Amino acid sequence: MVLAVIATGVLSGLGGMALALALHAIQHVAYGYGQAGWVMVAQFYAGCPCRMQKPM
Predict the structure, then answer these.
(1) CA-CA distances (angstroms) from residue 43 to 4, 12, 32, 36, 40?
(2) What's residue 30's pLDDT?
(3) Dihedral sign computed on CA atoms, order 40, 45, 48, 53
(4) What are phi and psi of 10, to 5 degrees?
(5) Residue 28 in contact with residue 34, Cβ under 8 Å?
(6) Do residues 7 and 14 make contact, with C-beta atoms less than 8 angstroms apart?
(7) Which residue in 12, 21, 31, 34 is a FRET match for 40, CA 20 to 30 A apart?
(8) What is the pTM of this model?
(9) How far apart are CA 32 and CA 26, in angstroms?
(10) Which of 7-11, 19-23, 29-33, 44-48 has the lowest mean pLDDT?
(11) 3-state SS string over the chain?
């Protein structure tokens, strides 16, 4: 009985992880998430006036 409970927990955890990864992949395809988005954010903050302060 205990083995059945443990097996059920492990299998449902693996199934949940597989579902989460599948949904994450669908989000990447549907909404265009990717490396280019992070590059644009990094370039924006690199040129941010708040970072362009004179050294003391």
Answers:
(1) 52, 41, 19, 11, 5
(2) 84
(3) negative
(4) -65, -45
(5) yes
(6) no
(7) 21
(8) 0.54
(9) 10
(10) 44-48
(11) CHHHHHHHHHHHHHHHHHHHHHHHHHHHHHHCCCHHHHHHHHHHHHCCHHHCCCCC
Q: What percent of the chain has pLDDT over 70?
A: 59
Degrees, nearest 5: CA angle 44-24-6: 135
* Residue where the block lists tokens 């490396």: 35
Q: Are 26 and 18 in contact (CB under 8 A)?
A: no
In degrees, to the nearest 5, what angle opens at C-alpha 8 toward C-alphas 7 and 10?
65
